[in-house]
Amino acid sequence: MSDRPGVRIVDSADVAGDAEVGEGSSIWHLAQVREQARLGRNCVVGRGAYIGTGVVMGDNCKVQNYALVYEPAVLGDGVFIGPAVVLTNDTYPRAINPDGTLKSAHDWDAVGVTVGRGAAIGARATCVAPVSIGQWATVAAGAVVVKDVPDYALVAGVPARRLAWVGEAGVPLVPGTDHGTWRCPRTDARYIETDGVLTRASER
Q1: pLDDT at 107 over 90
Q2: Most exposed among 13, 23, 100, 117, judged by the fewest C-beta atoms under 10 Å?
């Protein structure tokens, strides 16, 4: 187990010495957290997950088993990354240069995926960088995201398209009593849609 106070790191995990791991966080079997990664408080990194060099995670994030979070990804507070999710970092990948030489870290510029507060990405989904996943958005299992996802959007498919709006409780919203309004059936929170953008009614 870890010698870092307030942090649980099992013996089979590989955590770089200069990685920052917030208090209350747990890193499970065979997970790898690379150099200069910064994990917030109360994060969970599941079995076999990979957190790349310099990746930033907010507080209360969950990265499930065998997910691959490549640098320079940035995860807001409360982000859920499902099992076997991939956040890529190379839009046009190649193993070799046109002259046949092996590509190195100097032969390409890494681009990342940004995930907003409270968003969830379902099992085996792939987010092809560079894309941003909005706050409280949901990416369905198996989706392939190739363009930005708005706040509160539920997207699915290959390529992913918006199917509905979801509230902060994660369930699809239902139409409100007024045109352009939506309601969460679980919390009764109200939302307003304007020109394809959804906001909480209290935020306006």
Answers
A1: no
A2: 100
Specify if 2 maps to a domain.
Answer: no
| Nearest alpha-carbon partner for 74 in 30, 33, 116 | 116
- Asked whether residue 97 falls in the same domain as residue 68, the answer is yes
* 1-45 residue pLDDT tens: 556 779 999 999 999 999 999 999 999 999 999 999 999 999 999
Among the residue ranges 6-15, 103-112, 144-153, 156-165, the one predicted with the least confidence is 103-112
Residue 25: strand, helix, or coil = coil
- Contact predicate 139/161, CB 8 Å: no
- Reading the block at residue 26, the tokens are 């747990």
Q: H or E element: which one contains 160? A: none
Q: Do 124 and 199 fall within a single domain?
A: no
C-alpha to C-alpha distance for 68 and 90, rounded to whole angstroms: 13
The SS3 assignment for 69 reads: strand
Residues of the chain above pLDDT 70, percent: 98
- Pairwise CA distance, residues 71 & 79, whole Å: 16
Domain span at 142:
8-166
CA-nearest of 134, 180, 149 to 190 is 180
- Let me know whether 173 and 75 are in one domain: no
* 1: in domain: no
Evaluate whether 86 touches 64 at the Cβ level (below 8 Å). no
What mean pLDDT is reported for the chain?
A: 95
Position 3 in a domain: no
